[in-house]
Amino acid sequence: xxxxxxxxxxxxxxxxxxxxxxxxxxxxxxxxxxxxxxxxxxxxxxxxxxxxxxxxxxxxxxxxxxxxxxxxxxxxxxxxxxxxxxxxxxxxxxxxxxxxxxxxxxxxxxxxxxxxxxxxxxxxxxxxxxxxxxxxxxxxxxxxxxxxxxxxxxxxxxxxxxxxxxxxxxxxxxxxxxxxxxxxxxxxxxxxxxxxxxxxxxxxxxxxxxxxxxxxxxxxxxxxxxxxxxxxxxxxxxxxxxxxxxxxxxxxxxxxxxxxxxxxxxxxxxxxxxxxxxxxxxx
Length: 283
Known about the structure:
Structural class: alpha+beta
Distance between the termini: 107 Å
Strand content: 25-35%
Number of helices: 3
Largest sheet: 6 strands, antiparallel
Shape: elongated
Number of domains: 3
């Protein structure tokens, strides 16, 4: 037993010496080759994950390309009690702006921005395909019957969480009861008022193409209205050999004045009357 214990102690000493020698050799090579040793991840880490000695290690990195916020000691990183704010992949440098002392959503908010939630369902959440880190437009539906209208009240809004899932790696569709988005203070006030005025819906958009839309409200009158203005012959006002007045382009009888906007024809018996209709349905 004494011999076995002695051999075990010798093995531990030799192992420590070996690993210490490897570490010193790496530091010597780093000094010779003008590289720095920084802390990198050894396994995937999600939002809220704690930094431990098991999921980080030291790795050589070109001194001229060390990213800002890198850590040069595992001990320094572990003592800070840091947790992950954004997903980190194996081999990625551990940077200060991806860590926080608290695994809370507020730590992800830039200065001046706010997180606000509102209820959604399968229909208003694009069947559950809206996930954290997506970019959406927010639409509001309000009014009754013929006065019902849909407006885009915000564009290019980043989604922070769906229900209580805030991980950017959560890409599987899932219907949540609430969605949390990141907006400034003014838009947070607008959303608070809008969700009391009508129903809010999300429109998922391409994160690489964020051009603003036309910003036109759609009303119930735009659905199946059947309005399709027929092209009319253009007319010009030009001197002619006969009586003065507007003439058809290319000659012919005088053309009537061109009506602006949609028109409605009402037939009462044998009498026919034409009315101009404004965008809101008034005369």
